[in-house]
Specification:
The complex is a heterodimer.
Chain A: H1 2-21, H2 27-51, E1 64-65, E2 68-69, E3 71-74, E4 79-81, H3 87-106, H4 115-134, H5 138-147, H6 149-159, H7 164-196, H8 206-214, H9 230-245, H10 254-261, H11 264-289, H12 291-296, H13 298-317, H14 322-342, H15 346-377, H16 393-406, H17 413-428, H18 430-454, H19 474-479, H20 481-491, H21 500-518, H22 521-547, H23 555-558, H24 561-581, H25 591-598, H26 606-610
Helix pairs in contact in A: 1-2, 1-4, 2-3, 2-4, 3-4, 3-11, 3-15, 3-21, 3-22, 4-5, 4-6, 4-11, 5-7, 6-7, 7-9, 7-10, 9-11, 10-14, 11-14, 11-15, 11-22, 13-14, 13-18, 14-15, 14-17, 14-18, 15-16, 15-17, 15-21, 15-22, 16-18, 16-21, 17-18, 17-21
Chain B: H1 6-16, H2 18-34, H3 41-70, H4 85-105, H5 114-133, H6 137-157, H7 162-193, H8 198-207, H9 213-231, H10 239-246, H11 249-275, H12 283-307, H13 313-337, H14 348-371, E1 373-374, H15 389-392, H16 394-407, H17 414-429, H18 435-465, E2 473-474, H19 477-496, H20 499-512, H21 530-536
Antiparallel strand pairs in B: 1-2
Helix pairs in contact in B: 2-3, 2-5, 3-4, 3-5, 4-5, 4-11, 4-14, 4-19, 4-20, 5-6, 5-11, 6-7, 6-11, 7-9, 7-10, 8-11, 9-11, 9-12, 10-13, 11-13, 11-14, 12-13, 12-18, 13-14, 13-17, 13-18, 14-16, 14-17, 14-19, 14-20, 16-18, 16-19, 17-18, 17-19
The chains are: A mainly alpha, B mainly alpha.
Chain lengths: 612, 537
């Protein structure tokens, strides 16, 4: 199975190469090749899904060599090509494969220029995303994480809307700035683990790091008293990149622009999967490896999440562009995901992790529907379209189901995620839960409002020439809908019905939306062990931190740079003086050993050592 | 053990320097001959390429086998030129990049000046290789000057306009000034230690208290200042944009690579390797760390931010090269902070060596790609000139894009691993209280790298997202195409399989340390080298 996972991840990249390197590929052939690769990848993913064993706690489908995950890649230091799936990543992996099909279906007819390149970039993006969720090595994770930027940059920049260039650059730079800080955080984790863990193990493996950091005996690590405590500091570094990806308020500003300008396929993958990368990273790294930082910063994080929920919902209410509306709804819904996970209890974590999947399904579907409307009418303006039920009933069905799922109507998938999130948050902070719940109400408002505008009511279709809505007076609408729509229909006889590629892309999403809503247990069971593990780690570390008496913050944080320098100087001088007197045997005790024993010992002990 | 006789030292030096002799002899022959005979520039170019290949053969086959035949252990504390892992690594890289530079230049000089032009290129290469081997203050300085002087010649040879002349004179005067600073610093180093052998100085600094700590500081400040000019680090960077803009693209490519490589090799040989023996808390070392910290931060910020404002390609590349000097200075900071066991993850100097190779590939690839582009009646000069290249010349644009993305540090390209190693070595260098300092520098570096990504991305955007106005021609023939192709594909290959280069860089870093017998992080005791101490006295 390990080899199967590797093939699944790399297969789309092979498709990219085929599409790019085949000279003079016909458009139709390019579409078919792209779809074929995506379908085979999906099939392999489903085989993996069937082969997944829920009861196993650790990652599955991974090569294991000499007791370590993955294949040797860079010899020194030991960065490995390690892929594997656990409960947390499994469904996101499946979601990626599914949504790529949706994206290909959505761009089947709408992309007319440079078709081969478009599908090539889509497949490259798929490899990036699949690899990212399956990575068991921090550096490999980061490589896939950054790699996703390049195809998406080109997708937005080449096939996007009128502002596409600005959108592509903003998206790229904004995410890059954050993710470079995340890289620092990742390196810092590895270094801290190396310097302070027992036996000074240098490892880049995610499971090993998670376990090693949890078992660390260094007191500084187990206290999160101040802003410069290691866990808090590293948490913030990691958070920088993931918060931008999620995106959390106030780092969301790139999102509406990118969404509006991106082609439909780009939007589907961006909202459906790339935002999950942020929340997945938060769960895997921030909460998995620096839980005390997460606990210490809860008020700050919860505030941001709640602001994001309410702000996103209010902004969505104010939009007349359907795509912007869905984009802002993402800000709001991802706020729930983050709020739930930072409640740091099993209910909240459960809810968050299933909500990631839910949001991917519903928002992916919503964007696909919006794309279908845009492709037919060349507008996304809510005031110019309406009553599509009469024209495209199948589209109306998809849109309504996705919107209801997104609005967390019981019986559909959104409820299964958002309810536990709110319950979990309630345990932690009532205020945050109550405020967050208003976001659910607002969410229902804007989604239903959108559905009412677009689907119900009299048929309203813009002119094809793009001059705006038909000159239909208010009176005429209220007077006789039938006449108007009939007259309308004659001018719009060319609106194509929902095509097979669109149906094929959306149906699996609809099935899952209903399935998760009606019978969520199998999904939760598969995610359960991985989440239980994270939860266990969080609770243990928090208990340990509590038993440590109010720990003194690290010295370096409290000192001003000047004072630190002075201290360093005096330390230097005293060591220099001591060098002659002290027996030379002290010198060979290398810095490494000092960090092993002396370094970690409480800062208060240091002045004692310095005394001659 | 007695110190080896002068004759033995000379023999050893002469053997080590065979590749440089080949290059210098060819260069002198070419320069002399060019006064009397006329040949098309193709001939001169071929001759210099053969000289480089011969040097490569000598380096990989002749020198090691002759040294093995001679059978004597090199005495580190009296040798003038070393053939350790560092010098092998650096010289191989320099010869190979020399070939790339010659390929880029093959179309540049006029026939009547071609002999001098290629001769000067060979001399610069030889000088750079001398610096890599140097184990002696004076010898190192000679190597550095052997790089500078032919550079003046190159700048003058291509004089065409007032701008070119201004660039040449500016570089000339400032370079002399910088050499003066460096020499001044070297004298203090000599004064503090009383000996000019670098390994011996390192040994003294380790074992003996420094009589006058101020002398050491003066030495560090002036040496660093002199070398900052070569590597275009703030505050001695300001000449770069003007000189790049005023000189032909090929010379700009040379200026952005060779002096930088030489400067950082010299910094490692003279400063970090010498001071690395010291305890991290040593006051002199603390000051050196602070100094390089400040230079690194200022260089990264200044280079990246000012590059945002540039429209001229050469000026943009000049600021980009300043910014990369900043990242390399971060590596220097880490190298100062490392003791001989390194940070455990990467040595600071190791990350410098790796980054230099990545930088050479991506910068020379980028310059080469730009050299090959031309409009019918003028050169490609501004960013907007590249509009639509991605669709008119997909292969050129692909090569350029790979180099640009690598420069901005996107994985999985070589530039990413360079940045990764530099910042990993920096974070690993910090322990306990000091680590905050390094984290701050790393954050500054990462944020300015993100800013820097903008101007690289701008070029990609122009190439792919705009349509071309004027048809661009690709010229330069197979040598440039091969050079650019090699650079771009190596950038990708090194991104995917960096381990062999990485381990070579590691070996080089270890050999640069004062006590090469002490290896890696697993050794806890320090064998005291008693014999060399006697021999040094």
């Amino acid at each position: 199975m390990a080899i199967l996972l590797t093939i699944t991840v790399l297969l789309p990249l092979l498709g990219t190469l085929v599409l790019i390197l085949t000279p003079k590929l016909e458009d139709e052939a390019a579409r078919r090749v792209g779809l074929a690769f995506a379908l085979v990848t999906l099939a392999l993913t489903l085989i993996l899904l069937l082969g997944f064993r829920s009861e196993v706690k650790g990652p599955q489908f991974s090569f294991i060599r000499d007791g370590r995950y993955g294949l040797a890649w860079l010899g020194r230091p030991d960065i490995r090509f390690a892929l594997g799936l656990d409960g947390l990543s499994l469904w996101l992996f499946v979601l990626t494969s599914l949504l790529v099909i949706t994206a290909i279906g959505a761009s089947w007819m709408s992309i007319k220029e440079k078709v081969a390149a478009h599908f090539a970039f889509l497949l490259a993006l798929e490899t990036g995303l699949l690899g990212l969720f399956a990575s068991l090595d921090v550096v490999l994770f980061y490589i896939f994480f950054e790699f996703t930027l390049i195809p998406l940059f080109f997708l937005i920049g080449l096939w996007g809307g009128p502002e596409r260039r600005r959108a592509a650059v903003t998206f790229f730079l904004y995410t890059l700035a954050g993710s470079l800080l995340t890289l620092l955080g990742v390196i810092a984790l590895v270094v801290v683990h190396y310097q302070y863990s027992r036996g000074h193990v240098l490892t880049f493996s995610i499971p090993e790091l998670t376990n090693g950091l949890a078992a660390m005996q260094w007191k500084g690590w187990k206290s999160a008293g101040s802003w410069t405590s290691p866990q808090v500091l590293i948490f913030l570094l990691l958070f920088a990149g993931f918060a931008i990806k999620v995106p959390m308020f106030p780092f969301h500003t790139w999102l509406p622009l990118a969404h509006v300008e991106a082609p439909t396929a780009g939007s589907i993958l961006l909202a459906g999967v790339l935002l999950k990368v942020g929340s997945y990273g938060l769960l895997r790294f921030n909460i998995g490896m620096t839980p005390l930082g997460a606990a210490a910063l809860f008020p700050f994080l919860a505030t941001l999440a709640v602001i994001g929920i309410i702000y996103g919902a209010l902004a969505a209410l104010a939009q007349t562009d359907v795509k912007r509306l869905v984009a802002f709804s993402s800000v709001s819904h991802m706020g729930f995901v983050v709020l739930g996970m930072f409640a740091l209890n099993s209910t909240g974590l459960d809810g968050s992790s299933i909500q990631m999947l839910n949001h991917g399904l519903t928002t992916g579907a919503l964007f696909a529907c919006v794309g279908m409307i845009y492709e037919r009418y060349h507008t996304r303006d809510l005031t110019k379209i309406g009553g599509l039920w009469n024209r495209l009933p199948l589209l109306a069905f998809f849109l309504i189901l996705a919107a209801l799922g997104s609005a967390a109507v019981p019986g559909l998938n959104g409820f299964v995620g958002e309810f536990p999130i709110l319950v979990g948050t309630f345990e932690r902070s009532r205020r945050a839960a109550v405020l967050g719940a208003t976001g659910m109400i607002l969410g229902a408002c804007y989604l239903l409002w959108m559905v009412r505008k677009v689907i119900f009511g009299p048929l309203l279709e813009p002119m094809h020439s793009g001059e705006g809505a038909l000159p239909v007076g208010e009176g005429a609408v209220s007077a006789g809908e039938g006449a108007v729509s009939a007259g309308d229909a004659s001018t719009h006889a060319t609106v194509p019905p929902v095509g097979w590629h669109e149906i094929a892309g959306l149906t699996p999403l609809m099935v899952l939306i209903v399935a998760i809503g009606v019978y969520p247990r199998p999904f939760l069971e598969q995610m359960g062990p991985a989440i239980a593990r994270i939860d266990e780690n969080v609770q243990t570390q928090r208990a340990e931190a509590r038993t440590l008496a109010p720990a003194p913050p690290l010295k370096s944080g409290a000192m001003t740079p000047g004072a630190r320098r002075a201290a360093a100087m005096s330390k230097g001088q005293s060591t220099a003086k001591g060098k002659g007197a002290a027996p030379k045997s002290a010198a060979p005790a290398t810095r490494k050993q000092q960090t092993g024993q002396a370094g970690p010992s409480s800062p208060a002990a240091k002045p004692l050592e310095k005394r001659p | 053990m007695n110190p080896p006789s002068s004759l033995a030292t000379f023999e050893q030096t002469a053997l080590v320097l065979i590749p440089e002799f080949i290059l210098l002899a060819t260069a002198m022959a070419m320069m002399t001959a060019s006064a009397f005979i006329r040949r098309p520039r193709r001939a001169w170019c071929a001759a210099s390429a053969f000289a480089l290949l011969a040097a490569l053969m000598a380096l990989t086959i002749t020198v090691p086998s002759l040294l093995a035949l001679r059978g004597q252990e090199t005495d580190l504390y009296s040798a003038v030129a070393l053939n350790d892992d560092l010098s092998f690594y650096a010289r191989i890289v320099l010869v190979l990049t020399g070939l790339v530079v010659i390929a880029l230049a093959h179309d540049e000089p006029a026939d009547e000046r071609a002999g001098e032009f290629f001769g000067a290129l060979l001399m610069i290469n030889a000088g750079a290789m001398l610096v890599a081997t140097a184990n002696e203050l004076v010898f190192l300085f000679v190597g550095l000057e052997l790089v500078s002087m032919p550079t003046y010649l190159l700048l003058y040879l291509s004089r065409r306009t007032r701008a070119t002349q201004e660039a040449a004179i500016k570089y000339f005067l400032l370079s002399i000034f910088a050499s003066g600073l460096l020499l001044y610093g070297l004298t203090f180093l000599y004064g503090a230690a009383g000996i000019s052998n670098l390994k011996a100085i390192g040994f003294f600094f380790d074992k003996l208290p420094m009589p006058q700590a101020q002398l050491g500081l003066l030495a560090v400040v002036f040496v660093l200042a002199g070398l900052c000019f070569r590597v275009t680090a703030v505050p001695l960077h300001f000449y770069a944009p003007d000189v790049y803009q005023g000189s032909p693209m090929v010379v700009a490519a040379l200026l952005s690579w060779v002096p930088k490589a030489v400067g950082f090799l010299a910094i490692v040989r003279v400063l970090t390797a010498v001071l690395a023996a010291k305890d991290g808390a040593d006051p002199l070392l603390q000051k050196a760390i602070w100094l390089s910290w400040i230079i690194a931060a200022a260089t990264m910020i200044w280079g990246n931010f000012v590059a945002l404002l540039q429209d001229d390609l050469k000026r943009l590349l000049a600021y980009s090269s300043i910014a990369h000097a900043g990242y390399l200075m971060v590596g220097v900071t880490a190298a100062f902070a490392n003791d001989r066991h390194g940070g455990g993850v990467y040595f600071g100097s190791e990350s410098i060596f790796f980054y230099l190779v990545a930088y050479a590939l991506m910068t020379l690839g980028l310059f080469g790609g730009l050299i090959s582009l031309r409009f019918k009646d003028r050169a490609v000069e501004t960013v907007d000139d590249l509009a639509g290249l991605g669709w008119t010349h997909p292969w050129s644009a692909l090569g350029l894009s790979i180099c640009l993305l690598s420069l901005s540090g996107i994985p999985p390209l070589a530039g990413f691993w360079g940045k990764f190693q530099i910042f990993a070595s920096l974070l690993a260098a910090g322990q306990g209280d000091e680590s905050g300092l390094y984290v701050v520098l790393a954050v500054i570096g990462m944020l300015s790298a993100a800013v820097g990504a903008y101007y690289y991305l701008r070029l990609v955007v122009v190439m792919y997202f705009r349509s071309s106005k004027e048809p661009i021609q690709v010229r330069g023939g197979w040598p440039i195409a091969a050079a650019v192709g090699a650079c771009a594909s190596l950038t990708v290959i090194l991104g995917l399989f960096s381990s062999s280069l990485s381990s070579a860089a590691h070996a080089a870093a270890k050999s640069a340390l004062p006590n090469p017998s002490v290896s890696g992080s697993q050794v806890a005791t320090t064998p005291v080298p008693a014999a060399p101490a006697e021999s040094a006295f």
